[in-house]
Amino acid sequence: MAQDVHNPLIPDAERVWKSYQILEKNRLAIIQQFDYLNSFPKTKDVFVAVFDPDDRKQLHYIYEPYLTALEEAGKVLPDSVLKIGIGICKDMKWSSGVSDRLQHVVLVVAADHPEIFVEQAYKLKKKELEALIQYLADVENNPLCAIYQKLLKNLHEVGAYNIEGKLLRAKGSGH
Question: What pTM, to 2 d.p., does this model score?
Answer without folding.
Answer: 0.90
